[in-house]
Amino acid sequence: DGEAFHPNLDPQPFDAVFLKGERAAAYSGFEGRTSDGVDLTTWLQQRQVDRVDVCGIATDHCVRATALDAASNGFSTRVLTDLCAGVAPETTQAAIVEMDRAGITVL
Predict the structure, then answer these.
(1) Straight-line distance from the first to the last Cα atom of the chain, in angstroms, rounded to the nearest whole number
(2) Residue that wins the pLDDT comparison between 37 and 21
(3) Residue 91: CB partners within 8 Å, gap ≥ 6?
(4) Of 15, 53, 83, 91, which sits most exposed with the smallest number of CB within 10 A?
(5) pLDDT by residue (tens digit) across 78-105?
(6) How far apart are CA 71 and CA 77, in angstroms?
(7) 94 CB contacts (<8 Å, ≥6 apart)?
């Protein structure tokens, strides 16, 4: 149950939950699907979302992959670094540079 929510977090207010990495390694949130099989790009487009803010663990892996996928799928993308944590300083800095070069706003 590694994917379980913390007992103090009530997922009831969430509009959707996207599971990733169930059968293979997955870093990007855009690789996830709802229990109905809807991917994140489709879900956001159906709701006419055009901007995405990304935060989480780890800046240099999942945050990076999710932000790059968001941008490549046409979403205006920001990474909120105060709400992120990287695995290592060197790879985190490299990820920030890569995201910036991809046109992602890194705050």
Answers:
(1) 33
(2) 37
(3) 60
(4) 15
(5) 999 999 999 999 999 999 999 999 999 9
(6) 6
(7) 60
